[in-house]
Automatic annotation (TrEMBL):
It comes from Anopheles atroparvus (European mosquito). Residues 233-252 are annotated as: Disordered. GO terms for cellular component: axoneme; microtubule cytoskeleton; nucleus. Residues 233-243 have a biased composition (Low complexity). Keywords: Cell projection, Cilium, Coiled coil, Cytoplasm, Flagellum. Residues 94-121, 368-395 form a coiled coil. This is Tektin. Belongs to the tektin family.
Amino acid sequence: MCSDPVTFPNLVTGFERNPQHAARSALYTRFTPNEWTTSNVCTYADADKNRNYSEKVRSEAVRLMRETDEKTSQGQRDAARRLGERITDITFWRNELTTELEKLIAESAQLTDTKRNVQKALQDLEPPLHIAQECLYHRESRKGIELVHDHVEKSLLVEVDNLRASQEKLSQLLAKITKQLADCRAAQHSLEDDISHKESALGIDSICHQLNNYSRGINYYGGIEKYDPTVSTPGTWSGSSSTRINNSHSERSKSCQLRSDAESLINAVATSVWDCWSNTNNAFNNRASEMLEAKSKMQLHLHKTQQEIFDVEKHIELLRKAINDKSNPMKVAQTRLEARAHRPGIEMCRDNAHLRLVEEVCTIQDSVATLHRKLQEAEAQHQQLLRTKSQLESNLKQKVDALFIDREKCMGLRRSFPVNNTIKY
């Protein structure tokens, strides 16, 4: 094997050039020792400068890393603290809303019970109203003089008016309760909706509060900080919940007042209905007593009238007998006069006997006429007594029928008060 000798390149012309020219060129391109020393010093200075700058950069980088780490950690802690405060606020308002919702639900349940009581009271007014109207209908069956606008009828009319007015009041109250229940349900729906939203927000914020640098599922979402989906501020957010709570409290207050009004109205209606019922029953009892007394008096008068009719009939018979008894004396007197009219000549004397016979005939005729007048008067009175008897019997029958209607038909319906459950006395 052969190897070429080591050759050094010419600094100017390279290897394959003129050596003389290369030597001369190298002489002119060489540095002096001072330049070399100066160059080394400059190199050392540049190296020191670069190292110092590098150390400064590294120090600033370390400081910046520490500052950014601290700032990031502080930012995370502050964000976590703010999330914790937000969770506390949400929990507070959720608890307030839940408490108010429970109170509202309880109040709605009580108002529903009150509504059932009002409906029951309204239904309980139907039987006494039907009974009062039935009594008025039965009392229209009275006849004659018994069709009197008495205290019983006035009491029944007052009772019917009171029952209808009570029904109207209860119906209006029932409409108010129904509307209030709808308002309470609307407030309840608003509270439940707010609670549902707060539960969702609380879950989301709780998850966000628990996230850390080593949590799973964290990722980049570029530009998310520029997207602002918020629709409220802390003031409007808390104000919305406060408004809903205040609205619910207002509805609860209205419901409580309505329940109190309903209870008062039910008791007032109960008292008025019972008073009218009692007054009508007392009027029926008093009227029954009056009709019993009138019936007894009517029976007494009827008995006396029947006795008087019997006496008048006997008196008429006596008058007729007395008239018949006057016929024979009349015949005797007239026969005497007729016989004496056949006396002859001067014997036709107007003597005392003739005068007495004429007087006797006139007297008998007057007596018969008087007896006939008395007989006619007695017969007329007999007819009047018969009419009175018929009238008394008719009135007695009417009173018996009216007494039966009031005491049996009407009082039979009113022996027991038909309301006994919802309305308390």
